[in-house]
UniProtKB/TrEMBL annotation:
Pfam families: Fer2, Fer2_2. InterPro entries: 2Fe-2S-bd, 2Fe-2S-bd_dom_sf, 2Fe-2S_ferredoxin-like_sf, 2Fe-2S_ferredoxin-type, 2Fe2S_fd_BS, Beta-grasp_dom_sf, Diverse_Oxidoreductases. This is 2Fe-2S ferredoxin-type domain-containing protein. The keyword Cell inner membrane does not apply. CDD domains: fer2. Gene3D superfamilies: 3.10.20.30, [2Fe-2S]-binding domain. Residues 50-126 form the 2Fe-2S ferredoxin-type domain.
Length: 207
């Protein structure tokens, strides 16, 4: 039974929702039996999967996931958007921060099924094409990273702050970023990068 479930999992991975829906699944057991799946395995897998649709970085995705899977797991393992990092997996480090309908959330604490119909922006969607966002540029210019693992979460959080407050004080920046942890830089360069990006945004684009 375990091997059959794994093979059924592979079927879901390789076929889109419309593909297996056209097979009249889960009622078309003959077609599944030809692939080596039993009626019991098919029924169990259908009950454990949920069809989810949401928009990520201005692109619509639809896929099957388990109700217990986090948004982080689906972004990384199902959609292949690995810029969002898994650090603590319990909401403490902020490495998995993304925008969900305009507000930042820890994607490790958000179920993928909760994001049904939502608009999500990950670190991959911060830049406009090949043009980096001023926050990203400021992080590079201020060397506000070392290993870079926490950087996506910091950049997403910093952008959220500057979207609300175009001229934050150092205290406001440090307080806002308290939910993002870094074990390399000591935070000073990160804070300077956010302050620098605020200036870049207030001055507008330069030619």
């Amino acid at each position: 039974m375990a091997k059959q479930l794994l093979r059924l999992e592979a079927l879901f991975t390789n076929y889109s929702y419309k593909d297996w829906q056209n097979l009249r699944f889960p009622y078309d057991y003959q077609g599944l039996n030809r692939l080596g799946f039993s009626r019991g395995a098919a029924s169990m897998s259908v009950k454990s999967k949920t069809y989810v649709t949401f928009n990520v970085n201005d692109r619509t995705y639809d896929f099957l996931c388990e109700p217990r899977q986090s948004l982080l797991e689906c972004l990384r393992n199902v959609l292949g958007l690995t810029g969002t990092k898994e650090g603590c997996n319990d909401g403490n480090c902020g490495a998995c921060t993304v925008f969900l309908d305009g507000r930042i959330v820890n994607s490790c604490l958000t179920l993928a099924v909760e994001a049904e119909g939502s608009k999500i922006t990950t670190i991959e969607g911060i830049a406009e094409g090949t043009n980096l966002h001023p926050v990203q540029i400021a992080f590079l210019e201020n060397a506000a990273l070392q290993c870079g693992f926490c950087t996506p979460g910091f950049i997403v959080s910093a952008k959220a702050l500057l979207d609300q407050n175009s001229d934050p004080s150092e205290y406001e920046i440090r307080r806002w970023l308290a939910g993002n942890l870094c074990r390399c830089t000591g935070y000073d360069k990160i804070v300077r990068a956010v302050m620098d990006s605020a200036k870049k945004l207030s001055n507008g684009p330069t030619i």
